[in-house]
Every structure is written in C-alpha cells, then in structure tokens.
Write a structure and sequence with these properties.
Layout: H1 2-5, E1 10-14, E2 31-36, E3 46-49, E4 60-64, H2 70-74, E5 80-82, H3 86-101, E6 106-109, E7 115-117, H4 127-130, H5 132-144
Parallel strand pairs: 1-2
Antiparallel strand pairs: 2-6, 3-4, 4-5, 6-7
C-alpha cells in the first residue's frame, strides 16, 4: 500500500480471490487487480519491481514457489528467488505483458469487491482476443517447432 500511496502504479495478477480492495482513495488508488481464469489452474508467480528503471528489464524480477496466502507464508517455507539473466527476464516480462493485455480470461476487481469480466473489443487480436492461456499455448508450440 505504501507504493500506491506514493503514487506508484501497482498491477496485481492473481489466480482467484483477492482480499485487497483496489481504488480506495489515499490507500490503494494506484492498485489494479486482475484475475486470470481459464483453462489451466496453474499460473505464473512472477514479481517485477521497476525499481526506478525506465526499461522494465532493468528492474528486479523474482519468481516464487507458491501463492502468498497465510497457509503458504506462515505454516511452511516458500521461496522467492531473483532472476538475473536478461534472457530469462525478457521471457518473464513477456508473460506479464500477456497477462496484462488479456481481455478474454481476465476479470478486474473493483473497490466494492465485485469483479468485472473484461471482453475483447471489436478489432482486438492476439492476446486481447484470445486470452492468456491460448496465447501461451500458441507461443509454446511455435517455439517448440523451431
């Protein structure tokens, strides 16, 4: 919340429910929360902090082993590790961009706790129209066939 209060835009991509209320003036007004719901249960656990960098690849990247829920943080040991290799950072940034562009599988959380399903707009293509899961499958198949 301190980042939001300082004017830093924060995007959270979560798999399911989230207890944080976005858009609360003076507290979370710079926080956007979206859930990606679709074909697969598993999802990325990528943490990106711009850390003052203009180029997102120069920021900090970490990957985690579990959801940040009470049972995972207080009742067992979970790991979040930094990613330093630029090639891997590029791939992580690509995944985050896909999730943030999705208008097929994405739901936005509102301040009142309700979710609004995003819908592709006329003329949308790629991830905006197809969604995160279809886009990731397409990329995996294309990379595998090379």
């Amino acid at each position: 919340m301190r980042a939001s209060q300082a004017g830093v835009p924060v995007d959270l991509i979560v798999r399911g429910l989230c207890c944080l209320a976005p858009g609360v003036e003076g507290l979370t007004d710079n926080i956007r929360i979206r859930s990606i719901i679709g074909r697969f249960l598993e999802h990325s656990r990528i943490f990106h902090f711009a850390a003052g960098s203009d180029d997102p690849l120069d920021g900090e990247f970490l990957i985690g082993s579990a959801d940040w829920m009470h049972r995972n943080l207080s009742e067992r040991v979970e790991a979040a590790v930094p990613i330093v290799e630029r090639r891997l950072r590029t791939r992580l940034w690509e995944i985050l961009e896909i999730c943030l562009a999705d208008r097929r599988n994405a739901w936005e959380l509102h301040q009142d706790g309700s979710y609004l399903q995003l819908m592709p707009e006329p003329g949308d293509e790629g991830v905006r129209a197809d969604g995160t899961h279809a886009t990731m499958m397409r990329l995996a198949l294309a990379r595998h066939s090379v």
